[in-house]
């Protein structure tokens, strides 16, 4: 979703997790990922009831913060421009109400455009697509299973991970 996007501050925005019944199976999967070409630093093994679960799933807290700021600035400015452009069109060729009150039209749409865009920026920057992976991994660790999470920088790495560790993966 954010691979080459201007609003992302994360280096590894694609995540894939898979759960395993034993420590041996989890470490074998992590080793097979390394042999396939995924750098060791992008692979996290999560043990049952791991105290570092959150950090292992979402290690880029600075990147997430940068994504929040970039998304809000970018979307907010785009919303302002869109609101003002729509207001200009309405003032020139719109209904009589907008033509008779151009200042109010610009104020209303100059305010509404950024507000709607900022709401959208919040939804995008908080990455609700990560919730399924986080919840699946949390449930696995709570039930005594091991998980391997691969943080991928490209879709090609994502496909490589899926091909390497199999069909039981949760992909973002």
What is the global morphology?
A: elongated
Q: Termini separation (Å)?
A: 9 Å
Note poorly predicted spans: none
How many helices? The count is 7
Largest sheet: 4 strands, antiparallel
Helix content: 55-70%
β content, as a range? 5-15%
* Mean of residue pLDDT values: 82
By secondary-structure content and strand pairing, the structural class works out as alpha+beta
Radius of gyration: 22 Å
Strand order of the largest sheet: 2-3-1-4
From N to C, what is the helix and strand string? EHEHHHHHEHE
Question: How many strand elements?
Answer: 4
3D structure, described in words:
It is built from 7 helices and 4 strands. The chain has helices at 23-36, 53-57, 61-93, 96-100, 102-125, 131-142, 155-165; strands spanning 14-20, 43-46, 146-152, 169-171. It has a 4-stranded antiparallel sheet with strand order 2-3-1-4, with helices on both faces. The radius of gyration is 22 Å and the shape is elongated. It starts with 13 loop residues before the first strand and ends with a strand.
């Amino acid at each position: 979703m954010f691979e080459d996007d201007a609003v992302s501050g994360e280096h590894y925005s694609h995540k894939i997790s898979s759960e395993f019944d034993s420590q041996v199976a989890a470490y074998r999967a992590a080793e097979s990922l390394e042999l396939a070409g995924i750098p060791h630093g992008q692979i996290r093994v999560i043990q049952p009831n791991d105290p570092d679960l959150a950090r292992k799933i979402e290690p880029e807290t600075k990147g997430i913060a940068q994504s929040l700021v970039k998304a809000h600035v970018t979307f907010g400015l785009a919303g302002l421009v869109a609101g003002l452009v729509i207001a200009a069109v309405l003032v020139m060729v719109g209904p009589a109400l907008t033509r008779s009150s151009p200042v109010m039209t610009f104020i209303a749409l100059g305010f509404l455009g950024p507000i709607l865009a900022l709401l959208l920026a919040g939804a995008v920057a908080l990455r609700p697509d990560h919730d399924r992976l986080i919840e699946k991994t949390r449930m696995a660790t709570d039930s005594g299973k091991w998980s391997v999470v691969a943080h991928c920088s490209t879709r090609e790495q994502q496909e490589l991970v899926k091909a390497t560790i199999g069909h039981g993966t949760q992909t973002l």
